[in-house]
Amino acid sequence: MHRDLSEQHTKGEVLIVEDTPASLKLLSDLLTEAGYYVRQAPNGELALWTAQSRPPELILLDIRMPGMDGFEVCRRLKATPELSQVPVIFLSAQHDTDDKVRGFELGAVDFVAKPFQAEEILARTDAHVKLGRAQKALAEERALLEERVAERTAELAREVEQRRANEEFLRLASQVFEATQDAIVVTDVNGHIVATNPAFTQISGYSADEVLGQNVGLLHAGEADAGSFEAMVNSVAKTGHWSGEILARRKNGDIYPGLLSASLVRDEQGQVINHVAVFMDITERKAEQHLIDFLSNHDALTGLPNRMLARERFAQTLATARREGRCVAVMCLDLDRFKSINDSYGHHIGDKALQVVSTYLTETVREGDTVTRQGGDEFQIIIADDTQLSATLALAQQILSGLRKELVIDGQQITVTSSIGIAVSLTDGDSFDELVRNADTALFRAKEIGRDNYAFFTERMDAEIRDKLAIQSQLRGAIARDEFEVHYQPQVCLKTGAMVGAEALLRWDNPVLGKVPPNRFIPLAEEYGLVNLIGEWVLESVCAQMKVWHDQGLGKIKVAVNLAAAQFANDATVPYVESTLRKFGVAAEYLGLEITESTVMGDPNKAVAALRRLKDIGVSISLDDFGTGYSSLSYLKRFPIDVLKIDKSFVDDVTTNSADAAIALSVISLAHNLNMRVIAEGVETREQVRFLTDRGCDEMQGYYFSRPLNADGFTALLRERRNLLDM
Ligand SMILES: Nc1nc2c(ncn2[C@@H]2O[C@H](COP(=O)(O)O[C@H]3[C@@H](O)[C@H](n4cnc5c(=O)[nH]c(N)nc54)O[C@@H]3COP(=O)(O)O)[C@@H](O)[C@H]2O)c(=O)[nH]1
C-alpha cells in the first residue's frame, strides 16, 4: 500500500544508508531532485529497521560504516525473506576489488564508486529500480500464474476424481445392466426401443438389433392382455410408475406371464426423456403356483378333483340343475375286490389300475359331469340329470359294462368289476357330503345284491328304476314278439242307445312282466323314443280291423286312436295317417284321433296347422281329459276340434259333487256353443248316465256300457247290434 503511494508520486523509493552526512545529503538531494522518494539511514541498524518497516525499491548501501558495516547489513537483508529481493547497490571506494567480489557474493546488484558521479548514480539507480520493478512484476506475475496453476491443478484433480467416480459408477451400472437376470428395455418418449440387455434377449428371443427402433408394444401379448397394458400406460403417464403382472409375447409368438416395473426417466429440467421397463419371466413361478393349486384341489394319483373341489363342483351343478328344474345325482363307484388286485399284482399295478379306471370314467361321463376320487378305490361322479334319472341310469349301466372288460396293465391281464351306489338330490339330500354318505349306503346294498351292480339309496326309487329298466328292455322287442293287442271300448249315443264308435286302447301282455298298463309303458316308450313305432303299429292294427268289420258288414263305426305328444309333434305323422288309411282302404271319416290338452299346448300354432291338415283329409279330432290341464279357451276356439271328452275325474262324482257337476255342465255347454260334440268317459253308474243325459251330453263310454274288449269281443258286440242303454 505504501509502495503504491510512493510509486504514484515518485520514480521509486530508495533507501540511502550512509554514515557520512555530507554524502547522505548529496545523494538524497540528487535522487529527490531526480524524482525519487528518498529515505535515509545513517547506520546499519537503522537501515535494517527502516527497510523492515517498509521495504524500499532499492537500497544504496555504504560499505564502510562504524558499527554494523554494509556487508553485514546486506547479509541480514538477504536473510530476511521480505527484503531479500530488494536490490542493493554498494557504495564503495574506487578500486577496491575485494569489496566488489564480497559484495556480489552477498547478493549486491551493483557498485557505485566514490567520489560519486551524479549521472552514474542516477543511471544505476534508474536501471536497478526499473529492473527491480520489472523483476517484482515478473515475480508477482509468476506468483499469480503459479496460484492459478495451483487452483487449476486442484480443480483438474477434482474433475479427474469426479470423472473417475462417474466412470466407476457407469462401469458398475453397465455391469449390472449386462449381468442382471431381469430383462431391461429402455425406450424414448415415443415408446421406441433404444436399449436392451442380454437378459431381455434370453427371455424374449429377440436380439437387441431386432428391436432397436421398434415400438415397445411389439413385446406385449396384445388383445390377450389389453387391460394390463392400458393400466400400465395410464399409471406411468399419471404417476411416473407402474408395476404388476402382464402377458408378454416372445419372438416365436409364445405368450408368457411377466412381472414388470415401468418408470419414467427425466432430465435435469424435468422433461421426460426415456421410459425404462424391468421385467422377469414368471412362467415357472406361475406353473409352480398352478401345480400347488392343482395339488391342493386334486388327487395326486389320478389328477381327479378331490373332495374340496368336488364340493364346489357339486354346488355349481346343483344350482344350475335347480334353475332348470332338474336334479343332481351322486354316484359312488367302488372296484369289486380291489384288495385282491393289490395283493396279487402289487400296489404298483393297483395304482395303475386306478389310473386306468379314472381315465375311463373321465372319458365316459358327459361334459358337465364330474368324476372325483377321495382315496382308495372309491370314485364319485356328480351327474346333472333330469328327474327321470335316465342319464344316471344309462351312465351306471355303461360304466358297469365298460369296466367289466379286461384291463391290460404292464402286460398283466386284470379283470375288474365295479359296484355303484346312487343318491339323488330330489330325495336323498342336498349337500355333497350327505349325498356321498347315502350313495355309499346304496353302494353297500349294490355289493350285497351281488357286486357288478348298482343300487339307488331310496328303495322306492330303486324299485322304480329297476321296473323302468325291465320295461325298457322288454318294450324294444314287444312288437316283434307280437305282445301288443288293441282293445276297443264302445262309445254310445245317448239319444239312440246305439254304439256309434269306440276308443282303441293298447294292451301289452309280456311273458316276463305280465300285463303292463298303457299309462305305465306309454310314457316310457316316449322317453326311449319308441312311441312313434308303437303308435304306427296301433294305427295299422285299428285300420286293418276296421277294414275287416266293414268287409263283414258289421256297421261302419268310428274308432278313435290315441296320439302321444311325441307322435303329434312328428311331422311325418299326418302323412302317415293318410297313407295308412289309403293302404287299408278305410275312409278317413271312420278314423278319430284323440289328443290331450298338453299335446297341443306345447306349440299351439304348429298344433293348429297339423289339426287342420287332419281335418282336411276327413279325420275327426277329440280333445281328451278336457279341463284337467291349463288349456286356454281362446286356443280352443282356434283348434278344429270335433269332440270334447269330459274327463273321468269329473264324471266319478258328478251326481254327488256340485263342483264336478258344474264343470261337466260347463263342458257340455261350451262344446255345444262351439259346435262340438261331448263324450263323457269313465261312466260306471246308471245315475251318471241319467244325470249326463239330462244335461245334453251326446255320447258316453265306460264300464257301465262295456269294458274295453279285444277285437273278437268287440266283434261279438257289434254283431249283437243291441241298444246299450237297455241295461
Ligand atoms: N298314445 C296312446 N295312449 C294310449 C293308447 N292306449 C291307451 N292309451 C292311454 O293310456 C292311458 C290308460 O289307458 P287304459 O289303461 O286303457 O285306460 C283307459 C280305459 O280302460 C279307462 N276306462 C274307460 N272306462 C272306464 C271306467 O268306467 N272306469 C275306469 N276305472 N276306467 C275306465 O280309461 C282309460 C281311457 O282313458 P282316455 O284315453 O283318457 O279316454 C289312457 O290315458 C289312454 O289314453 C295308445 O294306443 N296310444
UniProtKB/TrEMBL annotation:
<dbReference type="InterPro" id="IPR011006">
    <property type="entry name" value="CheY-like_superfamily"/>
</dbReference>
<dbReference type="GO" id="GO:0071111">
    <property type="term" value="F:cyclic-guanylate-specific phosphodiesterase activity"/>
</dbReference>
<dbReference type="Pfam" id="PF00072">
    <property type="entry name" value="Response_reg"/>
</dbReference>
<dbReference type="Pfam" id="PF13426">
    <property type="entry name" value="PAS_9"/>
</dbReference>
<keyword id="KW-0597">Phosphoprotein</keyword>
<feature type="modified residue" description="4-aspartylphosphate">
    <location>
        <position position="62"/>
    </location>
</feature>
<dbReference type="Pfam" id="PF00990">
    <property type="entry name" value="GGDEF"/>
</dbReference>
<dbReference type="InterPro" id="IPR000160">
    <property type="entry name" value="GGDEF_dom"/>
</dbReference>
<dbReference type="InterPro" id="IPR001789">
    <property type="entry name" value="Sig_transdc_resp-reg_receiver"/>
</dbReference>
<dbReference type="InterPro" id="IPR029787">
    <property type="entry name" value="Nucleotide_cyclase"/>
</dbReference>
<feature type="domain" description="EAL">
    <location>
        <begin position="468"/>
        <end position="722"/>
    </location>
</feature>
<dbReference type="InterPro" id="IPR000700">
    <property type="entry name" value="PAS-assoc_C"/>
</dbReference>
<dbReference type="InterPro" id="IPR035919">
    <property type="entry name" value="EAL_sf"/>
</dbReference>
<dbReference type="InterPro" id="IPR001633">
    <property type="entry name" value="EAL_dom"/>
</dbReference>
<dbReference type="InterPro" id="IPR052155">
    <property type="entry name" value="Biofilm_reg_signaling"/>
</dbReference>
<feature type="domain" description="PAC">
    <location>
        <begin position="242"/>
        <end position="294"/>
    </location>
</feature>
<protein>
    <submittedName>
        <fullName>EAL domain-containing protein</fullName>
    </submittedName>
</protein>
<dbReference type="Pfam" id="PF00563">
    <property type="entry name" value="EAL"/>
</dbReference>
<feature type="domain" description="GGDEF">
    <location>
        <begin position="326"/>
        <end position="459"/>
    </location>
</feature>
<feature type="domain" description="Response regulatory">
    <location>
        <begin position="13"/>
        <end position="129"/>
    </location>
</feature>
<dbReference type="InterPro" id="IPR043128">
    <property type="entry name" value="Rev_trsase/Diguanyl_cyclase"/>
</dbReference>
<feature type="domain" description="PAS">
    <location>
        <begin position="175"/>
        <end position="240"/>
    </location>
</feature>
<dbReference type="InterPro" id="IPR035965">
    <property type="entry name" value="PAS-like_dom_sf"/>
</dbReference>
<dbReference type="GO" id="GO:0000160">
    <property type="term" value="P:phosphorelay signal transduction system"/>
</dbReference>
<dbReference type="GO" id="GO:0071732">
    <property type="term" value="P:cellular response to nitric oxide"/>
</dbReference>
<dbReference type="InterPro" id="IPR000014">
    <property type="entry name" value="PAS"/>
</dbReference>
<dbReference type="InterPro" id="IPR001610">
    <property type="entry name" value="PAC"/>
</dbReference>
